[in-house]
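Final report, closing paragraph on structural work. Over the funding period we assembled a curated collection of sequence-structure pairs, and we close with a single example.
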Amino acid sequence: MVIWTRHRQAPDRVPLICRWFEERGFEREWVSPPEAGFGVGVHRFTSQPRPLLPGRRMFTFIGYDELPDDFPAEEPS
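Its predicted structure, as stored:
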């Protein structure tokens, strides 16, 4: 299960984030309504898991000082 947050300021990316999860095998459990003023979503993975590759890093946390000047970047394809 993934619990995620996102502001609802323009552009409101909450519907897009939901679509990204759902296109990748996650089922929407709950998403806060737009009038709440904030975005919180809960998605559960219901697809067939793929094996993890040994020694591969899934992600890295970085600080704001590492972000490119044009962040946020374009939407992923």
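The mean pLDDT is 90. Helices lie at 14-23. We thank the funder for supporting this effort.
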